[in-house]
Amino acid sequence: MKIGYQGGITTLRNHLRIIRTAPSGSVRCNGRREAFEWMHRLIQGAIPEIEIRTDLGHVAELDKLVSVVTEERPSMRNRAITVLARERGIARSHVCSFLFIDRKTAARYCNDYEHGGTAQLFGRKPSGRQKSTDKRIKEAVFALLHSPPSTYGINRTT
After folding, report:
1. How far apart are the C-alpha atoms of 157 and 121, rounded to whole Å?
2. For 19, which DSSP code?
3. How many C-beta atoms lie closer than 10 Å to residue 26's C-beta?
4. 29: β partners
5. pTM of the model as a whole
6. Which of 9-13, 15-19, 27-31 has the lowest mean pLDDT?
7. Residue pair 85/39 in contact by the 8 Å Cβ criterion
């Protein structure tokens, strides 16, 4: 005798994956089309403020994220949309398809926001490799500057 759920295991696993990955208190957005329409309306500024506050009122710095979506350059806009869509429960794959960004990039945006808010999300990241700190480059420049011009075929006989 079976008690409880009568459906297939694949359907159950898919449903559990959606539940486990959606942030708590969010409005779930399951369909790709629905997700794309919501993100498109967000970019256009076509979603009323009351609707945004109803769906995403739990999001810290919501006003800043929404203003970046409509007022900033595309690279900043994509970061804000990624965070807002994630908080709304939109699948990362839908966000990445809509914005044409890599899944790792989307994950980094969400991680930056979780650990440092909008300051870290929109802040400039220092380069991992700077020429000024590379010991080999410093030594080469020093050697070039402190060697006589004749070493490089330059003769000053004027």
Report:
1. 58
2. H
3. 16
4. 90
5. 0.64
6. 27-31
7. yes
Return the axis-axis angle of helices 74-88 and 32-44, rounded to nearest 10°.
130
Instruction: Render pLDDT for 57-69 as a digit per residue (tens, 0 to 9).
Output: 999 999 999 999 9
How is residue 65 annotated by DSSP?
H
All structural domains of the chain with their residue ranges: 9-128
Tokens 């794959």 belong to which residue?
A: 93
Tokens of residue 6, six digits: 């009568």
Comparing 20 with 120, the larger pLDDT belongs to 120
Q: How many CA atoms lie within 13 A of 16 on its CB side?
A: 7
Cβ 99 vs Cβ 81: under 8 Å: yes
Apex 37 CA angle, 35 and 40, nearest 5: 110
Say which residue the tokens 């559990």 belong to: 16
Whose structure tokens read 């990362």? 92
Q: Which residue from 71, 69, 65 is spatially nearest to 112, judged by alpha carbons? A: 65
